[in-house]
Structure to design on (445 residues):
């Protein structure tokens, strides 16, 4: 996909003798300076930044030459967040510099993408225990003060696939809960026991005493871990961490492969890797947002919620619901819509959403989700006929049966559903029925 989101900068990013000058886009004023200060644990911060950059340049599925993609940095009131996706879009990495990890002022909310080329990676790799690491992000510079020289960093457009990945990850992560926590020492032993890149078995990590054990079968309380080599980026920061936490959705005996988040916590920093259910599945194609995006009011709600978003470190759904005068489910759907432009993320450690400053395009949701376009076309063509707990959907020359289940799920007789069994979001036929059902429910109320 060659579609990209384009940002305008005042100039190129440059690493000068006194630090890296990084251009920014967005924010409450044109190209604002949003942070200036030190990272209080420089060696750990450098290791975390290198991990996020390493994920951005790696393809875990069908590895090829290193990608050249830029991590995204956001400043919001009391913390900095650095984010990236792998070249295959199956791993989402984020480094959070928490209030205890920064010594400086975040004076505005801003987001930009950071070019991390080999000279900067080499400079970060040489940060020693007593070396200061100073960052200043503004209209003319993000200064990363190290002991190294100067390199000119060129900006690149933010790939559309990353925007789709941002939208999917935040919806999926909002269903996660903490499942396990082990010490850094136990985490080191656990990571060393993991299979290599050639092993793509579906594994499940289960708490066992002070550590984790791996099993081939899903059980309650387990966390899915497929393509375990994708956790390799955690190793560089492991020596600085206190704990490793694992997050995931609820697991039952019959669960299919599921996404998961693995997080190292130093106290000042949190480095997390969110893994797609299987290495060949990129987050940009998971379809988790489709049901939320299908509502009749979602675009108008997103316009309203977008105005209300502040630059606090977290977004409170109940507070937005009260301020907007709409219920919490509609707020979450609006956040999913805003997420199609990358404007919303989810922090599993806090169990809360957060805001990025990126342009919002209401039309992106449909451009990036052809199943949503197809479902709305079926509704407009009056192709859905309800019949109790089931519905008939006429799609071209084919007729499919869609059934609704007590838990709110839909199943369909189409080949897409037979292949994916709902693991990649609803098919267009099930989505069309959900749109019709939602319209009928609103009409009754």
């Amino acid at each position: 996909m060659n579609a990209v989101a384009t940002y305008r900068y005042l100039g190129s990013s440059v690493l000068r003798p006194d630090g890296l000058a990084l251009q920014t886009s967005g924010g409450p004023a044109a190209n604002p300076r949003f942070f200036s200060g030190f990272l209080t644990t420089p060696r750990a911060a450098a290791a975390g930044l290198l991990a996020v950059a390493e994920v951005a340049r790696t393809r875990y599925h069908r590895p090829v030459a290193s990608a050249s993609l830029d991590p995204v940095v956001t400043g919001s009131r009391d913390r900095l967040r650095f984010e990236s996706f792998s070249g295959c879009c199956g791993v989402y990495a984020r480094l959070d510099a928490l209030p205890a990890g920064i010594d400086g002022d975040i004076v505005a909310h801003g987001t930009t993408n950071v070019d991390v080329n080999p000279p900067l990676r080499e400079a970060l790799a040489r940060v020693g225990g007593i070396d200061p690491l100073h960052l200043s992000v503004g209209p003319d510079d993000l200064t990363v003060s190290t002991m190294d020289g100067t390199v000119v960093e060129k900006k690149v457009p933010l790939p559309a696939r990353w925007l789709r990945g941002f939208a999917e990850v935040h919806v999926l992560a909002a269903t996660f809960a903490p499942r396990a926590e082990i010490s850094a020492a136990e985490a080191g032993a656990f990571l060393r026991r993991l299979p290599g890149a050639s092993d793509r078995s579906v594994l499940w990590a289960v708490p066992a005493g002070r550590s984790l054990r791996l099993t081939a079968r899903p059980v309650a309380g387990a966390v899915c871990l497929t393509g375990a080599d994708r956790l390799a980026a955690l190793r560089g920061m492991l020596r600085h961490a206190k704990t490793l936490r694992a997050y995931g959705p609820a697991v039952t005996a019959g669960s299919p492969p599921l996404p998961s988040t693995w997080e190292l916590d130093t106290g000042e920093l949190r480095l997390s890797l969110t893994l797609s259910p299987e290495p060949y599945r990129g987050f940009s194609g998971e379809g988790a947002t489709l049901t939320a995006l299908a509502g009749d009011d979602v675009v108008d709600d997103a316009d309203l919620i977008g105005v209300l978003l502040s630059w606090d470190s977290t977004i409170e759904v109940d507070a937005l619901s009260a301020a907007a005068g709409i219920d919490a489910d509609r707020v979450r759907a609006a956040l999913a819509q805003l997420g199609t432009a990358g404007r919303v993320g989810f922090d599993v450690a806090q169990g809360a959403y957060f805001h990025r400053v990126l342009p919002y395009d209401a039309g992106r949701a449909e451009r990036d989700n052809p199943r949503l376009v197809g479902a709305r076309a079926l509704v407009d063509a009056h192709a859905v006929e309800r019949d109790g707990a089931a519905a008939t959907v006429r799609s071209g020359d084919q007729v499919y049966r869609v059934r609704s289940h007590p838990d709110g799920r839909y199943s369909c007789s189409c080949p897409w559903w037979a292949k994916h069994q709902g693991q990649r979001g609803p098919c267009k036929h099930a989505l069309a029925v959900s749109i019709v059902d939602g319209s009928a429910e609103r009409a009754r109320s």
Summary: DSSP finds 13 helices and 25 strands in the chain. The CA atoms of residues 79 and 387 lie 52 Å apart. The radius of gyration is 22 Å. The chain has a mean pLDDT of 84.
